[in-house]
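DM from R.C. (forwarded with permission)

"hey, sorry to bug you on a friday — could you get me a structure for this? deadline for the figure draft is monday and I only need the backbone to look sensible"
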Amino acid sequence: MIKNKTTSFEIAMLCLMLVTMACTPTKEKKTIRRPNILLLMSDNQSAEHLGCYGDKSVKTPQIDQLAEDGVIFKNAYCAAPSCSPARASMLTGQDIWMLGEAANLWSSFPKVEVFTQLLEATGYHVGIEGKGWGPGDETVTGWTQNPGGKRYDSFENFFNESEKGKPWMYWYSSRDPHRPYRNEGWKNSGIALDSIVVPPYLPDHIDIRKDIADYYDEIQRFDEEVGTYISLLKEFGALENTIIIVCSDNGWQMPRGLANLYDFGTKIPLVISWPKYFPGGREIQDFVNIKDFAPTILELAGVEPSTEMTAKSFVDLLTTEKTGKIDPQRDHVVMARERHAFVRKGGIGYPGRAIRTDQYLYIKNYEPKRWPAGDPPLFGDVDAHMLHYEAPTKIFMLKNKNLKPTRKLFNLAFSKRPQHELFKLSEDPFQMNNLAYDEEFASVRDEISNQLISYLIETGDPRETDAAFDWDNVHYYKDRDKKPKPSKKSIEILGLKDEYNYLE
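My reply, with the result:
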């Protein structure tokens, strides 16, 4: 239960006063302080892997407490299952196809307004720690700093540089649980291997259980980081007036996760807490997208969003006392992918668009003749960095791809896919049985496909309009990936060459 519970009327008046304060001159220097905003983002974490989301194996007491005091979103999704475009969408409030090169990993960033700039222009002190937007090179388009804001090496230094009484926004972007994981970190974290529930799209083998356990260890470390920031807020006397947002940028770094439009690549955790004004202890079932962060944060700060931002604020979901499904218009979410890593000849990508509703997930793959996980034998979209460090789950599946227990799961993760994919989620929550070519579901496929395409045309997606954009030839700002060199261990286990040249 929430302390200092406020009525809906009081909440509405607060939001009105925030906007008024930001946009209208006043003789009063002090009315209601605009809130501070602390964004704590993990890297490559799927939604379900937190205690507050029902996972019994991972221990996340800090985030669980925030969820108890705040609002937990059960249908939060990223705009793209890839770091750079997901973070670009969050900053701009736009779908990735509106962002040109920034729809790709290791890209550049367009000269468009981001919500952090708008906050700064209206008096906020803004800073980032960690990745922020990226990976990529923002300088080639004229940015003098990361689009997320000025970089700091610690929250303490940022806070000490903040002007007393001035609102601030700080974005801490953790490296956890991005690979490489701490080798056998699970042993020191109290994670029991027999407690781990292996999703059915992965083989249930001890090597994979250990890999998942190491991933959980990284999540627990992120949870400790969250606790550290909360302690600092208390120490600085800033906790009461700070909105805390905990989320991930995209799904986990496993086959059918990162770089895939299935839920395991796109569904993210999202917990938001401001007990003084957001009624807590609530679960929201409405669909929200990471691109919605931009207009939401701006509205909370009393700042008008840019006209370029097409996303929709979800402040109404935060301030209501309702739970479950609230806004009937938030009944679906749209995601997209272009090129993830440089893992195919010539650096071409694997473009796709997806729409997710309560009942169905529909995916349109625009280049079904291409390998969805990257060219064999490396399949680099699925954990390209196994070349430089271990990725036990992927290596196990590649090593055992011809064995009967693994063959079907290998094909689901790595083999070519049809143009259309449709999954009925009540019967197939892990999205393993494609119904798109089943006559019984033809009308469903057509209806949901038309809904997706209508939205893409309405928003000017070149994949569905006469407009043209050559995403395949967008520059990739990490030359090492273009001629990958497998590790000695990978060469020995999988019989690989010592170098692959994707430029030929």
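R.C.: lifesaver. The chain has 13 helices and 14 strands.
me: no worries. Residues 1-13, 16-31 have pLDDT under 50 and may be disordered.
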